[in-house]
Amino acid sequence: MAGKPVSVAIFLSFFLSISFSAPLQYQTFVLTSLPQPQTISWASQLESQVIGTPSESETDFSLNLHHVDNLSPSSISTPESLFELRLRRDGVRVEALSTLAAAPANVSGKRHGFSSSVISGLAHGSGEYFTRLGVGTPAKYVYMVLDTGSDVVWIQCSPCRKCYTQSDPVFDPKKSKTFSGVACGSPLCRRLDSPGCGSQRKCLYQVSYGDGSFTVGDFSTETLTFRRRRVKNIALGCGHDNEGLFVGAGGLLGLGRGKLSFPTQAGRRFGRKFSYCLVDRSASSKPSSLLFGESAVSRKAVFTPLLTNPKLDTFYYVGLNGMSVGGVRVPGITASLFKLDASGNGGVIVDSGTSVTRLNRPAYVALRDAFRAGASNLKRGPDFSLFDTCFDLSGKTEVKVPTVVMHFSGADVSLPASNYLIPVDSNGKFCFAFAGTMSGLSIIGNIQQQGFRVVFDLASNRVGFTANGCA
Predict the structure, then answer these.
(1) Of 23, 251, 254, 324, which residue is least crowded by CB atoms under 10 Å?
(2) Residue 227 gets which letter from DSSP?
(3) What is the pLDDT of residue 56?
(4) Rounded distance, CA 247 to CA 73, Å?
C-alpha cells in the first residue's frame, strides 16, 4: 500500500506530460501465438555438423542454438505448459542470480566455500539455450548449455559414480587422445577458489548449487570442436558425480567474464569477441546463433560500456540511464536507480539465461504505469503469473502499442513490440513482459533481447546491440 501514492504520482506525471506535448509514438503489433512444441530431438542433429577436417587456425566460427522447449518436448507438452514451465525456471534463475550478487565477499573473495566463478546456473533454470559441440579427440558430440551467467566449463564423464540421464553417451576421457588431468598446485588448479587434490596428485573441482545439487570430478584440459574449429587446452571439469541437474544436456559451456569461462580461456584465439542472436520462436523457425571472432561484431551495433563489479567477475554489467514509453522519458526512471555501487551491490546485467527482464521495484512500477497510460486503448485482462499488466486481445490480428526504448549509457535500444507484449495463452491474452524485483540487481532477459545480435566485445570492454541481427 505504501507504494501506491508514488505510483499514482508517476502515472499522473506521465499522463500530464503526454497531454500537453506531442502525441505518443506507437508501433503496430501483429499478434502472435505461443510457440508450438517442435519436433527437433537431441539425436536428430547431425552428429558432427562438420564438413571436412576441423581446423585450429580459423579465428571465426559459428554455432546454431536451440531453445530447451524445442528439444525433445514430451508428447503431452502444450504451448501453455511449456510457457508455464519456462516461467517457473525463470523465477528460480532470477532468485539464484540475485542471491549470488547480494552475497558478501570475504577478504579472500570466496563465498561460503565456493567461488562465484564455479557456481553455475544450470540447476537454477539457466538451461534455456543449447548447442552441439565436440569434446576430445576424436571428437564426441554432446549438447551443452550456454550460459553468460556462469563461468566454468564442465561435462559428465565416465566412470560415473552417479550421473543424471543425458541424451548422448557419457564422455569417456580414456578414449580421448587429448584429455589431460591438471596437477595439484598448478596455476590452473589454483584458479579454482576451492580446489581439491585426489589420487596421483590430480586437481579436483566441485561445483555447488543453491538447491543442494552438485557436480564433482577431475579438473582437466581437453580439446573442444565447434563445427570446423578445434580449440585446444580448454580447462574443464570432468564430472563423475553429478546430482540433481538438468536432464538431457551433457554439461555446460560458461560464457561469463570470470577467469575460467570459455571466452576468458580462449579469447585471444577469436579476438575476445562473441555474439548471439536469439530468434523470436513464435514468429520464426530459423535457429538462434552464436558467433565467435570479428564476424561477431556488427557494424550497425550500438555499444554501451561494460562495468566492473569488484566482488563478482562473472556477470556482464551495463549502465541503464532511463527508459521511454511512446517516445517520452518515463519520470522516475533515472541512472541512480540502477547504480552499481562501490561495494558491488545494485546494477544491471545482460543475461542469456533469464527470460523476463527484471527491474528493481521503483523502476518497474514507473515503467508499468507509463505503459498502462499509453495503452489505455487496449482492453485490460486479469493478471497472469508474475505479470500484472495484461490485455485481452482476443479477436484481433494487430493493435497499436506505445514504443518502448531502453536508454543505456551511449546506446538507445528500441524494442520491437513482440519483445515486450507477449502471448501467455491461446485465448488472446497478452502481457507486458517486464517484472519487478525486490532485489537490487536488475536483469535484461532474453525476451527483450530477441531479434537483436547481442555483442560481447571484451577486447573493447563493451556490449553492443544490433536490431534485426539474426539474418
Answers:
(1) 23
(2) T
(3) 58
(4) 12
Q: Which is it for strands 196-197 and 203-208: parallel, antiparallel or unpaired?
A: antiparallel
Query: What 3 state SS string does 277-300 have?
Result: ECCCCCCCCCCEEEEECHHHCCCC
Q: Which residues form the catalytic set? A: 147, 351
> Count of CB atoms within 10 A of residue 247's CB?
10
**Residue count of the chain:** 471
Could you read off the pLDDT of 365-406 as tens digits, one per residue? Answer: 999 999 999 999 999 999 999 999 999 999 999 999 999 999
E strand or H helix at 307? strand 302-307
Q: How far apart (Å, rounded) are the C-alpha atoms in residues 147 and 126?
A: 7
Q: Is the pLDDT of residue 98 over 90?
A: no
Q: Residue 15: helix, strand or coil by DSSP?
A: helix
- Cβ neighbors of 21 (< 8 A, separation 6 or more) are 328
- The C-alpha atoms of residue 220 and residue 183 are separated, in whole angstroms, by 9
Dist. CA 54–CA 226, nearest whole Å? 8
Confidence of residue 199 (pLDDT cuts 50, 70, 90): confident
Q: What are phi and psi of 129, to 5 degrees?
A: -130, 140
- State CA 37 to chain mean position distance: 21
